[in-house]
User: What shape does this take?
Amino acid sequence: MHKQYMHAEISRIVRSKRKTFGLEITPEADLIVRVPMRASDKDIQKTVDKKIKWILAKQKLVRERCDKKQPRAFAEGEYFFYLGNQCKLYIMDNASTPLYFDSGSFILSARHAHKARDVFTKWYRKQAYDKFCQRASFFSAVSGLRYRKISISNAKRRWGSCSGKDNLNFNWRLIMAPLDIIDYVVVHELCHIEEKNHSKRFWDKVRNMMPDYKERRAWLKEKGHSLCLQD
Ligand SMILES: [Zn+2]
Assistant: This one.
């Protein structure tokens, strides 16, 4: 492959008082370029071109991790999604609970580190249940659509469902997504209470409650795969 055919998209350029150029690949495989205050576009592009092989290899590695080729280690410094944010994991020797969340970070007790996946899943499920109850109750009050009860599922591909008896079911992995996305799934399932199909009438109802639902739905289609613990 010729070098000029390789291309990496720059997600963000951060200018600061530094003298050197720095490249960073985020856990979402985005490329961030840190540059001196007065760096020109040409200089920035040159830096990226020079390191293009490294960038593409690193991005591939990060993406593959979420394609489940490389399971998570639950090691200190790893990032976990919660409500759309990347939150860093710390492991502490004498933490009082198996896992807690504080000021944007996860703290896992060292004693529970060997079963970190279970501990995380349990924590996510609990947060998911509370959040879905709260959001469903809100949108139910706004719309007058009454559901019976809420449960949390572990489905691999399905984000939510509404039963014939109007029980709502939501995937715990959604708690990793931004609230906007959670709300879209809630509204979607609530609308199934009156329309048990995906007819035009159904989508009209969704649009009525959430005019920008299409963008939220697209987000889920595009990024839903990243809402996982790589198990
Ligand atoms: Zn549906």
